[in-house]
Queue: 4 jobs
Job 1
Amino acid sequence: MSGIPNAIKSWYFAERPKGDLDDTTLALRTVPLPELADGEILVRNIYLSLDATNRVWLSDWDSYMEPVRLGEPMRGFIIGEVVHSKNAQFPKGALVSGLSSWSDYVVTNGEGFQTYTGIAGLDLAEAFGILTVAGPTAYVGLVEIGQPKPGDTVVVTAAAGAVGALVGQIAKIYGCRAIGIAGSAEKCAWLTRELGYDAAINYRTEDVDKRLAELAPDGIDIQFENVGGDILDSGLKHMKNGGRVIICGLISTYNSPGETAPGPKMFRNVIMRRLRIEGFVILDYLARYPEFHEKLLGWMRDGRLKYRLHVVDGLENAAGALKLLYTGGNHGKLMVKIGDPRA
Amino acid sequence: MSGIPNAIKSWYFAERPKGDLDDTTLALRTVPLPELADGEILVRNIYLSLDATNRVWLSDWDSYMEPVRLGEPMRGFIIGEVVHSKNAQFPKGALVSGLSSWSDYVVTNGEGFQTYTGIAGLDLAEAFGILTVAGPTAYVGLVEIGQPKPGDTVVVTAAAGAVGALVGQIAKIYGCRAIGIAGSAEKCAWLTRELGYDAAINYRTEDVDKRLAELAPDGIDIQFENVGGDILDSGLKHMKNGGRVIICGLISTYNSPGETAPGPKMFRNVIMRRLRIEGFVILDYLARYPEFHEKLLGWMRDGRLKYRLHVVDGLENAAGALKLLYTGGNHGKLMVKIGDPRA
């Protein structure tokens, strides 16, 4: 049958990293294509989303979901085209997305997959890159958990990342002041000149603590935390009474094995400033995605929500690309183009 | 005039402690009684409340309120009798309570003071000891911030302390399971045999982490934290998804100067378990005290809220008594009897 491969190429979890990801963590292997059972579909993957939480799945911690086991294909969100189907719900030619694996093709019974029927005005990469993880994460974290009010000062860490870039813009839509923390002058300029952030701090060249004192002299109402470690410590120092610290990610600690990551030094400010620190996992909110997408798409179409995609070409480059998230080497939403977007 | 002294004896903040309180931190001094100005009253103090947060007031951190300054009288909640009045709101003979100083007499314009008219069935020590700080703190923390539901597993640290003893009993009233952590076999026995705690862990002789795994195999819904440090770390390991960590006190860290107290090691569980960590200060809730007192008094009269008072006799013993809070040497609500309760 034309378009059906003989084999499937995937990245496998080969060796648990002790700290930073290294070249032996994941290994690209090819296995023969299995026969499709009734109810299964074969998906030709087009895009793979790379997310900071991927590192968590490779740890042996007790986490928010089962880790990837050694010897299994690496897990990731993908969107692709059904090229063979024994499941009437997902006919041949349909575009489908779901939490799957880092592979050129996947065989699945479709559990947890959604059909994608296109969104006017967005190409496939934009829709997948912004609406699968980053957009809903930014919305739920800032709006539902952070409860922003007009005039609030919102600090966003990893502000030039896929989620952070959106958070600052949503903060502005809600009438807040947005201060971004990012890792280069180029990123900081992008935040203030393109995205409408009121100010940006380059944590590699500036004293974050001192700059926060200058930029938020009355304190921070909401800290949207993607990083943890020293950056979070600085934020905790400058929180206002009744402030909210939204823990979306702690990327600076994900490479620390076991319980070795130090906790926030200024933890006592939870009392002194009457703080609420709250974490969340976007997978808990999948049922509410239509509601979030409606909001996000409205803003995207009005030009109030800008973004950039960092698309790495070729499945074979996925493992190398993932490291960019932990060094700050990506510029915008990081994803891998595995196959031709056009069927 | 009879009953009016010539001088006032007070504990003064003499030397900032570097870590633990020591004998030179506070010093007892006598100053001449000033002339009362219009609007002022002279109060003969009867009881002084000693509270874990007293140590915070002696630090130079940025805290939830102004610290006590070196050379000033030490701050504390007192109840006493008006023995001379130039303020019609507080006539001679009235009992008044408020945030004042560690003194045998105080001169005040009455700002922040309340008149105490007696509560049926409670003697002055009980009313002052339970309703001034400990009771409202336990109620607000557990009920308003913790939002307990029937069947929830509630872990209380410093469970035999003034606040903790009440928290477990209120948890039981709300249909929860209560597990207490305390520092002696005697305290643990008191928790389970007298107060109705379902279980107690002696942190000095037992492995808290292991015991929590046994006693809360499905995880902790609410951790009511008075201690911090290793005890909090153990709790964070065993939190259930969506759990709430109420930060009432971090007494184990109050003797650590500046930013040296280590943060919670298992902080990443804020994400992994989708936790809400929330701190509060009872002084923010003074306007709602009548509502809390009604609840607490109802339970006290029904015999559902037991407590014990640890009353140290004599103002001159106040500084020594305060240290008991940081070594776990007190048994129940710690307070100092400064003068005769009977007018």
Job 2
Amino acid sequence: MLNFEYDNKTKIIFGKGTENEVGNYTKLYGKKVLLHYGRNSIKKYGLYDKVVASLKANNIDYVELGGVQANPRLKLAKAGIELTKKENVDFILAVGGGSVIDSAKAIALGHYYDGDVWDFYLKGIRPEKVLPVGVVLTIPAAGSESSTATVISDEETGLKRGYGDVSLRPKFAILNPELTYTLPNYQTSCGVVDIIGHVIERYMTNTTDVELTDRLCESVITTVINNAPKALNDNTDYASRAEIMWAGALAHNGLVGTGREEDWASHGMEHQLSAVYDIAHGAGLAIMYPAWMKFVYKHDLNRFALFANKIFGLEINNSNLEETALKGIAKLEEFYKSIDMPIRMSDINITDENINIMAEKATHTSDIIGSFVKLNKQDIINIYKLAL
Amino acid sequence: MLNFEYDNKTKIIFGKGTENEVGNYTKLYGKKVLLHYGRNSIKKYGLYDKVVASLKANNIDYVELGGVQANPRLKLAKAGIELTKKENVDFILAVGGGSVIDSAKAIALGHYYDGDVWDFYLKGIRPEKVLPVGVVLTIPAAGSESSTATVISDEETGLKRGYGDVSLRPKFAILNPELTYTLPNYQTSCGVVDIIGHVIERYMTNTTDVELTDRLCESVITTVINNAPKALNDNTDYASRAEIMWAGALAHNGLVGTGREEDWASHGMEHQLSAVYDIAHGAGLAIMYPAWMKFVYKHDLNRFALFANKIFGLEINNSNLEETALKGIAKLEEFYKSIDMPIRMSDINITDENINIMAEKATHTSDIIGSFVKLNKQDIINIYKLAL
């Protein structure tokens, strides 16, 4: 186990009807709120009205900025920064999924910064001060509701970049599984893949003596795998949607990675895939993990056999660990397929034409990505080819 | 799953050598510290010198109060409150195990309170303001390093009472597994029982649809059971001691109880046992859990069968769940015995003479304790008898 520091100051408010309390929590931090959201769904299903009613009931003034799309754009975040500066906003309330929250975090970063907010993402500089952010979550997936992370895409350059700072953890996150009832199954599945991905990035580690966090990782993944079919089969099944929603927060709040070296190469490669093709992050991850796993599994057959055993209940063949490892990867592919996710680029009609460009972009800030196995540009090209 | 709120603002600093950084964290909160500790061990093994050196290096002034004993006493806490008021202390640094931290929390409660600090424990009133507390942990057991709880004993009345408030979560907790190398095996075992107990109190619940937290509970318990023999066999085995130490914090930081009704009857009964006989809390719990389980298991055979299966790998006999449940309880007893814990009062020469008094005290603030099965005074007497 490695030395680590861990704290997570995001207050989770979890359960039925909790979105109606948003004003009570917001007023602890701000008086003039930027209400940030995506497109039509929060208005269509009544969430917008509930949030606004709760803000008004608490005498909180607000301005709005909707229009966040999947793979949230730098351009909109910059418009948000202009707005928060002009309107003297002191709190950002993100109502939506990971894209909305990530966009809110970008605005939070830019509000007190004189330069270009993109500097944070490209140069990794630290913010002196950020606007506080609160969340009403509608899509369990990104874990951004209690994470330090934000991922933004710049349409002009085609770059998609992640950034993280502890100051970006939301002050509170309201998680009501009922708010996910209206999600299309495709989005639920993408979320499930993303949640599992956040744990795989931590599970596949070179750090030894990490038994407790191994078990925690397995707990999150198996719970999500077990509940996904139920949630997809019945959109109003509170129990399964609650399990997935809480799992989504724990997968990426830092806990299951404590004391471990993490990887994140697959996320890096997926970011370029979704930057070029504007596909959903989860769908891209369902394509990238099997390919990445096939490229790296020989690096630690024991760990891949453990994954096969603990996640899918496969018996470990000690005289042929490779067999167990490969069966585990096949089971993961099978699970992704069972929830209607693509597992090859060809499943969504992507060919090899942009592989070199994506590999180039994936190594834009560092020649080497990943840590379980360190990958150079040629390795990344080979992994993209395995994903065809 | 029940609606819940969860946050834990304690910063965990985990790993080798971290105690040398205590001054860096302390200075974020205070300039005049009460250094609170137990008896001789922190001086004997050099920890005291390291802590003082780090405080001095950060220009932090301090006064001292040592002498905290197991089952920390109200009298010493009151002396501490007098001292913090007189010396204008603005931060309490607890260096020790759960008793020292609980005593520090009592002092934190009393510092800004005009009345008797015992009011909090007896009447459950809320504090307006408390002194901030920091921790250097030496015994993984109580989980007090990141919990809201404090348990104090009043020698005059023989009452032992717990209290909890979110304001009592320590600001930071330094967890270096190396600091546990000098613990006698008996104390390590007591800690192991305590850690497992904190999870059992949450695992045995009437709340349904709590799959993820079930898995998290099992992760903590199985990790501790798996690592305890290694830690006891080699006091300087960093890996196993690290697993137990991190498990000890997670067992009682609130996470594994999210969305669940919790029980706490066994803790309540044990508190009276250790109040009357001044035995170690962990030893008392190793006696109380098997007795409590034998009294309540029929209330939910499925849950006890799950416990047997997930914790001890026993196959569930679906045509005779009771058999599986009882085997699981027997396995828990076997584990306690294997780490040299008593499992009956008779193992430590306690007879039935004070059973009525203990049952009386256990129902001092409420006629009914527990929630998995609600227990009245006669039930409690019967459980104590099962523990003889």
Job 3
Amino acid sequence: MKKAETNQSTSTLSSPVNQVSFRVRYAETDAMGIVHHSRYLPWMELGRTELLRQIGFSYRQMEAGGFFFPLIEASCRYHAPAHYDDLVTVETAIDQLRPPYIDFRYRIYREPDHLLLVTGATKHVCINQDGALRREPLRKIQLALEASSKDNGDFPS
Amino acid sequence: MKKAETNQSTSTLSSPVNQVSFRVRYAETDAMGIVHHSRYLPWMELGRTELLRQIGFSYRQMEAGGFFFPLIEASCRYHAPAHYDDLVTVETAIDQLRPPYIDFRYRIYREPDHLLLVTGATKHVCINQDGALRREPLRKIQLALEASSKDNGDFPS
Amino acid sequence: MKKAETNQSTSTLSSPVNQVSFRVRYAETDAMGIVHHSRYLPWMELGRTELLRQIGFSYRQMEAGGFFFPLIEASCRYHAPAHYDDLVTVETAIDQLRPPYIDFRYRIYREPDHLLLVTGATKHVCINQDGALRREPLRKIQLALEASSKDNGDFPS
Amino acid sequence: MKKAETNQSTSTLSSPVNQVSFRVRYAETDAMGIVHHSRYLPWMELGRTELLRQIGFSYRQMEAGGFFFPLIEASCRYHAPAHYDDLVTVETAIDQLRPPYIDFRYRIYREPDHLLLVTGATKHVCINQDGALRREPLRKIQLALEASSKDNGDFPS
């Protein structure tokens, strides 16, 4: 859980930050009247898709090419609840990239008051269709990140 | 929607009825405090899996063998809401079997008072991995149904 | 199911059409590699929210005011599958409005080739917190629809 | 994430272990052909419900009485993927109980080969309808746990 709060990566990687916004769907709420806690994980997944697109990668094409990034760890800290029809923003950054591993971290907040809802982190491993570890796709992401580092956002560490 | 209420199949097929019971999960509720209407479709899917198992088929093995049964139609009629931790039963029957098509119908009710919650129907087509229509898997289901017809339940038509 | 295809409403109501677009989330796919059939219902719900917003209503405020619109019927016809990261558009229109009932219909298609994915229909009833039928909120929607009728879209009937 | 692996609770609490088994639903899989990582959280929720029932509590009745247990933290470690129709068991134990906080930990494995799929932990806070912290419901759970401690299972710490 610490990872979402303090970034102790020894890597010199500086990641761009993707921001994607959308409205909470009714189907994402539960009987407590708030967004169900499991529903933030698909939002983080959406953030990863958009972050990769931002630096020139398509996760869809990676899968078509036979590479997958299953999760090996996930953690969420719930700060405040979201409600139906809230406009929310998911901020996604790459926290660490040590092929074949890649770690993302997230901050999810409500618009327009910027209320922090959830912070989280996920750790993934790159494999091929046979389940074998693969480093090459992540090295390509690394190169793309270095190329985009001048545009680096200010995701608070 | 008519199909769930009146069975006008010209086929002489009589289908066994599968009954499977489970408790409503919190994650299946929404902010109205009731089970979200979309959640009954996965319950019907669970009913299909169990009905096929009951007559000696494994949907999992069919998929492993390269056959799929995507939906082409679905309908639900919502009679009463279900709530968290309710014990519910899904009754599933085959309504019509005209290879490559197979239709199921469902009655979902609450235990122990047998309150009717939802009735529904789904229509599927059997295809292989290339998307081509396939009749053989359904003919096997037909034979299995005929073999099991003596054990036929009393799903109201 | 007919309702989604042919609009035989005797009402003279002409409804605006809302269009809302978004990308398919990975969490919405299933092991067939396509969007799970149950996932279109939350998309239709999203379409309803946006259609009501378009004509000046907030479903969120209606619920805060003690009015709810639970489903009493839903139907989907699946024409073609959607895949992860597809850009999809949900078109939503009000099909019929006979307080306390309101019917919506939907066409969901893929961008940019306009491939039709799913057509559907839902029927709702307006109730208050005690479950009593309520006509007033729907009469307000009716007035708003009449006011917006000059901007009416061309949802094919 | 450490918490799921090593139990460093200073409390002398020894918790019973609940085991609940069910089959993976098709709707819980994703395009990778495995259970979507977000789907384990509802399974853990199901485990909590059953553990509380086992020691004589009904989470449903607690909510009816105006007490809620929203999550403040959740973490999952994914060891091996689950597939459609797998029979899985969720083991749930109370890790720590410091009113108004309660922590659960989980081990999810596949039957019958006992393959470990996921370990996890969740931290909750007890609040009333106004969002105020509440200790009493957790003290009652504490008493019930002490009463049931002779039946304590062997959840590995």
Job 4
Amino acid sequence: MRIGFLGLGGMGLPMALNLVRAGHEVSAWNRTSSRADAVRAAGGQVAGTAADAAEGAELVLTMLADDAAVSAVVFGDEATEGFLRALPRGAVHACTSTISVALSRRLAQAHAKHDQGYVAAPVFGRPQAAEAGQLTVVAAGAPAARARCREALEALGQTVHELGDDAPAANVVKLAGNFLIAGMMEALAEAFALGRKSGVDAAKLLEILNGGLVRSPLYQSYGTMMAQERFEPAGFKLSLGLKDMRLALAAADAAAVPMPLASLVHDHLLSGAARGWGDRDWTAMSRILSEAAGL
Amino acid sequence: MRIGFLGLGGMGLPMALNLVRAGHEVSAWNRTSSRADAVRAAGGQVAGTAADAAEGAELVLTMLADDAAVSAVVFGDEATEGFLRALPRGAVHACTSTISVALSRRLAQAHAKHDQGYVAAPVFGRPQAAEAGQLTVVAAGAPAARARCREALEALGQTVHELGDDAPAANVVKLAGNFLIAGMMEALAEAFALGRKSGVDAAKLLEILNGGLVRSPLYQSYGTMMAQERFEPAGFKLSLGLKDMRLALAAADAAAVPMPLASLVHDHLLSGAARGWGDRDWTAMSRILSEAAGL
Amino acid sequence: MRIGFLGLGGMGLPMALNLVRAGHEVSAWNRTSSRADAVRAAGGQVAGTAADAAEGAELVLTMLADDAAVSAVVFGDEATEGFLRALPRGAVHACTSTISVALSRRLAQAHAKHDQGYVAAPVFGRPQAAEAGQLTVVAAGAPAARARCREALEALGQTVHELGDDAPAANVVKLAGNFLIAGMMEALAEAFALGRKSGVDAAKLLEILNGGLVRSPLYQSYGTMMAQERFEPAGFKLSLGLKDMRLALAAADAAAVPMPLASLVHDHLLSGAARGWGDRDWTAMSRILSEAAGL
Amino acid sequence: MRIGFLGLGGMGLPMALNLVRAGHEVSAWNRTSSRADAVRAAGGQVAGTAADAAEGAELVLTMLADDAAVSAVVFGDEATEGFLRALPRGAVHACTSTISVALSRRLAQAHAKHDQGYVAAPVFGRPQAAEAGQLTVVAAGAPAARARCREALEALGQTVHELGDDAPAANVVKLAGNFLIAGMMEALAEAFALGRKSGVDAAKLLEILNGGLVRSPLYQSYGTMMAQERFEPAGFKLSLGLKDMRLALAAADAAAVPMPLASLVHDHLLSGAARGWGDRDWTAMSRILSEAAGL
């Protein structure tokens, strides 16, 4: 399949390589072009612009940082021509970035207007999972468009959940997932602060509670980082976590759903950002709770 | 070992029976005496008062509803003589109830004054786990006292975590555990409300998020109840969950630890109680979030 | 002075009339033109478009509903040509609407690019205060631009606070003011719910607390509406209050200032909107608190 | 009238002196007796114990620090005999301290059992207001008991609000009042933090918002302290404010009224206490908000 791949960051590059290895004809583009060398070395092509990568493609996959980056690449901005006009009729754009529900809806409409398909296909997983082709993908969009990109998505993830026809629903799921993690961090951070001031070591508390009660590998890995207070290097930056809570709250606001816990974790991440911790791991949020307790 | 067992409710009765089966000489007491028949049938003895059950015992285990019940049974009230004076010097009281940190500290002091041992030994698990001897026990107290009751506690639970010399620390762990569950419920409830108003079914959202991300049997069971909105019969009553959040907040207040998420779930449980849902399962708390979203 | 006045709603019409009465040459425009008749009757002119009203004006005042309306009138949209190009060099745009800090900053930049002045001049007060020329105006922007519109603003309000050179600062003050009111409503609503469930009538509670302690006419008028639970007709619509809390939270987010009380009142207003109360007075927010208490 | 006055702290002493000056026969007692000299100098008597002061009195007024102090003085503890038995039948206890709703109810029952009257009569105002006889008093209790102490209460305060027969209702009003102040501080603190990070000076913001909108002397005085960040010497200690928020939350919990803003301010005061600010003025709570914003 002829695939344009846009965005070769920590997540995008291994994803693009997996598509090359799966036998697809990949034409990759990245804003800073040096990242594209690895794609060429693996047998893929490198495009000079996003529009070039989309030219003649059956599918374009985007893995970009945020709404602004996706919007620029699709619709263009002062610096770039977007790929919206270059993408052939009938081709599909599968957007794997974590973007807002509002932008996802706008993309669905814009592609429909150009007789193109659009699938929201956000992914769960860290770069290691991307390398191993073990991401979890959540895909939503018109059935024909989903069918079109199924094989490619399966090359990226061990599980592809298909969610239905309304593309933004997949973005809601992704944001809900990151919110669940943030909520877990908040709960652990408060429990750890209570434990510490009551003579119970955080690591011991985690061992007992996750061992017998919760039994989640997610609690284990996040909880261990928080118990050890090792926030660098970042697995997922606090500034990105903050961005995702903003997107979750924006989706909630638009849907008229009060999410007080989301506001709470947003505020703790925002306070972390205000203190200059934007580049630390987002588990650093737990320091806000410790400091509130005078620890 | 000669064991007095006080409190034969849904948790206490199977625990007492397991001690009988493990070969201990159990003398059991319950405020409403009919519950004691099963103990007699299994080969145990039935005591007329809490003090009688403690008379000559090496160990007294208590499994009672709340602070008031434990306090009455230990110190006595208008209706009952407490067992504090009847318990022999050198014997140990292991308190398995979910009680306040403050009462636990008071018990430690009172038993020490009477040359008795005290172990805080709260348990995690539902009645089925109690029947199967598969509770998780967290035990704290003086080493000698802990040693004294180790065998009995091992007859109750598959895992016994020993936590150190300060008895109330075990109560903190128990309260932190129930708080973690409540925090998880809050996060799921908000995510479900957002999902529902965005066209994503709660069961589907749970399947995706717990399947690939959290992978916790706790999320699975609680999340399923919340997705199905089946709140009766109660696995754990909302009124009891509210009680535990009160105890967690009281411990946090005494330790000068702000726990905003604990306040949040407390408020949602309190609102449930105000609406007359005290006897429903505490997952009914999720209805508060749904209603806030106009669902 | 030649003044273009854009937006003749409940606030804008009396403001425009006051400018006519103060002797200014007013050319007024409104999206639905029937509202302009009163201006003509008073001796003002009526413009066919926003751009016409700005043509040849020394000052343009805008009093429009929200960001979208202001943006459309300044920059244009599918339906309207904006007045940005029509406004003469050296003329000033004084924006009296409650808009976002971000849009205010964008307006400052756009007008500067066109060698025009921009003053953010949001107003406090209801339509009655507008009629009486007793609004409170907060004005910020370059000194020359502020000097240019001083006389006109003084015709609108009994007090004009000049705040400095950075126009968006005035918008922050306006949003902070509406947030203070919302915070007061939250506090009163919680106190009233506690009072009611403790046998203390809300009106009596207000009488005691505002009479002896707070002594604020604002508490008196809002508190009375909340005590009587008369939410219709709306003095200030819940949907507009919600909009302003969104703007306050957006400003706070951009400035990295956690505002947990703002999130709290946002959530209560949002829940009101979710229940279909958008057109009631925003004091209806207190019903959310009453219902939470089972009242 | 023969009046026993118990508690001669910063508030109690000027209150006792006002009663002497109003012509009452006052027998005063204080735990540290040196405080009583001023009463003797003014023409009052000094009692050796609380019980002595109550002996033969028609009315006993208590102005003590907290629940523990009131409870000790009424019911006795290891150090003191309480005055409950010494107070003549038909005499009245008017409790002016800020105590819990629960203790107030217990006092009402205990005095009724001894055929004595009980009036909850908490006061609003600082020591200067006590000196000037300008406190605001809120009195509740049986009509006959209220009638009995009316004259004495009028000697203390410029306004005496009578609230009805249920004594604890007056305590609810007092707690609601202190909660309103705390809520106002939270709102101002958030608004100030937003202002500061947006280039608007706190004092200026206060001037505009309180000047034109709120117009409350309470906002003025508290807001000025917060704007200047002068937290010492304390007008009202943070630790006492924290105590009152605990009492408000306890009353709310017992009445099944979620009060999320009360939880919020409680947490900020608690965090202040955790940082060692218990003896600063409770407006120091605003530092928690400033720090959260990285100020």
